[in-house]
Amino acid sequence: MPFPDIVPELTDDLVRLRAHRADDLDRIVEQSHDPESLRYTTVPRPYGRAEARGFLDLIEDGWNDPRGRRYWAVTAADDPTGRYLGTIDLRPDATGQVAETGFGLHPDGRGRHLMAAALRLTARHFFDGGGRRVYWWANRGNFASWAVARACGFTFHGTLPDHLDHPDGRCDGWVASLVAQDPMTPRTPWLHAPVIEHDGIRLRPWRDDDGAAIEEPSQAAHLMPARSILRPDTFATWLQRRRESAALGSGVSWCIADARTDRALGEVLLFTVTGTMDGDHAELGYQVMPSARGRGVARTAARLVAAYALRPVAEGGLGLRRLVAVTAADNDASNAVLTGLGFAVWGREPATDVLEDGSVSDTLHWHLLPAADG
Fold it and tell me: Which CATH architecture fits 10-179?
């Protein structure tokens, strides 16, 4: 059968996938002018009706080729008109065993979980036809796209530098995949930083504009890993890494802000070195900018986050079983914070850092259990 009859309609209670139609053209143009579409896709610039007609021709050619790309128009299942809300595609390799997927929504379709439903339908269609694995790629930082892939059970594999083409230049690429036997449900948590306020301190999610408050660091270099330190010139990349950790379930970072002015004073975070924060344990970390030191900011922030981490899930906490921390033995201020919170030293690594004067510093390992566990 030629296009459009060859296109199998896929549907569930939320979404219906159908063949593209000529009357989709204007909405395809609208979608291609959307700032998010321009930011994260390779749609031509400028994009008008001629480009949309070319896209519809490309879609038809793909379906008419036995090994071509497969595109579906995304519509709402409860819309009898089948109004265009986006596009999803599968691009099988020569073997037909592995495919890549791509998708994009018109702004009218966002926030309704339509694309996750569409991805499950197309992936299942591919697997039912003998496919084995579907790959997802996205520009690094495209958290909306990752939210769709994550919801469908894709496993995140990593970031490849300068891997993807973009009209503004090569960019880093995220990659994840789904295999036929995977359950199409999230495999990792997406961690969020709830607002916690007490004693003049507000713990809240970081904002892009917090970069204006970041100060040059003044602590000794060996007290923290270099890439973890807040710096004015690297704040944007630092913040992206923190957001990536949250999206992958391996860490959650709060901005420590002054409760009166909401100005950033530092950071407190929970993280895991490997794996995800799945209710077992996490490491506590914190840093305060030079102008905020000596006011008990770190102590208050660490106390609030430690209590939240160890509080049972039923009571609004993370329900972790154990907190750990790592400090330099000569970091008197940080060690005093942990001691005040009830952390105990369980180990000491000798001569872990060589200082500028040639001397060496040991590392202390700390742990804290919920009070009920001793």
Answer: 3-Layer(aba) Sandwich (3.40)
